[in-house]
Amino acid sequence: MAQTISIGSTRLVDLLKAKLGRELRLLKDGGFQVDLEESPAGQFTFLAFRVTENGASGSTLEEAQNIFKHFLADSISDIILNHWENILLKDIIKENYYYFAEDEKDLIYSYALQHINRDGQNSRDTLYWLRRKGRILQKLLDFLHNNNRIVIEGFIRFRLKEYIGELKEAADRAVDDFLIEREYREFVQLLKYFVDIQESKIDTVHVLINDDGVFKLFDDHMQPVRSDYMEGYIIDFVDNEINYEDLLISALITIAPKEITLHYKHKNNLRTPLDTIKNVFTGRVKECRGCRLCASTH
User: Fold this and answer.
1) Based on the domain organization, do 68 and 208 belong to the same domain?
2) Residue 204: helix, strand or coil by DSSP?
3) What pLDDT was estimated at residue 55?
4) How far is Cα 83 from Cα 13, in angstroms, rounded to an integer?
5) What are the pLDDT digits (tens) for 217-230?
6) What is the pLDDT of residue 277?
7) Domain end (from 163, 188, 213)
8) Residue ranges of the chain with pLDDT lower than 50?
9) Within this chain, do residues 61 and 146 fall inside the same structural domain, yes or no?
10) Residue 10 gets which letter from DSSP?
11) How many CB atoms lie within 10 A of CB 238?
12) How do residues 89-148 score in pLDDT, each as one tens digit?
């Protein structure tokens, strides 16, 4: 006996119809006819699919309906991950972090996407994405096995609580990232202020940094910078664990050179201090990678 399978949604209905188009053609080629009836119901649009035999099928009607349900589950899971996820994430941020400005929420959203993608980039981590799709697909198949009617919003809300939890966790982590980044920007702005009010003690400073962050400072005659320029800051670190990055930034702010040339061999371990120096001393920093000082770093 033919059954009607109904899908309701407030969003992305046209996209769902387009994705199911290819699958419907495959069923038709297999000897089955799928009739579609579209009807509005308030904010929702319902798509009612009725699978019937056209006389050329080698499968039973029940098998065809199960195949269609699998096509439907696959299409819905794709739409949830590729399209609905962005909507859900923005709604979570809007609801839980309403006190941030709109541009700040946009930045939090971009950070959250990076956590979801799990590779720190805009491109998706394929294996992680496939795992998530597999979990959602299985829940859809389980639901459609016992039901011929599904409302996508209700399914997401009540059947995908673990998935929604992952999105909320990504949003929480994104807020932490945003706050850390904001604190860093405020810190850099404060350091830039100190640099601007300092009188430059040396025109040019060459900074030689090894892979462990240990540094040496030379003037424009390639002579070591006088220790009395930095004496107060060095004393501050005597009774504490030395943080070479902080010490280097403090020394450069004290000297306030008009030009800084950085010498290093490998950047990977030095990315944070180098970026901070460039941000604080905007327009004053050059990088050298090929002189004798660069070659002497270990």
Assistant:
1) no
2) strand
3) 60
4) 12
5) 888 888 888 766 65
6) 92
7) 188
8) 119-123, 233-241
9) yes
10) S
11) 7
12) 999 999 999 999 999 999 999 999 999 875 444 445 678 888 999 999 999 999 999 999
**What value does the CA radius of gyration of the chain take, rounded to a whole number of Å?**
30
Non-local (6+) Cβ contacts of 99 within 8 A are none
Q: Of the residues 139, 162, 188, which one is the last residue of a structural domain?
A: 188
Q: What is the distance between the alpha carbons of residues 164 and 91, in angstroms, rounded to a whole number?
A: 11
With contact defined as beta carbons under 8 Å apart, do 9 and 44 qualify? yes
User: What are the structure tokens assigned to 165, written together?
Assistant: 């939890």
Helix axes 152-159, 161-197, angle to 10 degrees: 80
Per-residue model confidence (pLDDT) at position 104: 97
Amino acid at 88: L
Q: Would 195 be classed as within a structural domain? A: no
Give the pair of three-digit tokens for residue 256.
Answer: 């306030």
CA–CA distance, 195 with 212 (Å, rounded to integer)? 26
Alpha carbon distance 89, 93 (integer Å): 6
Give the pLDDT score at 247. Answer: 84
Tokens (6 digits) for 185: 């920007």
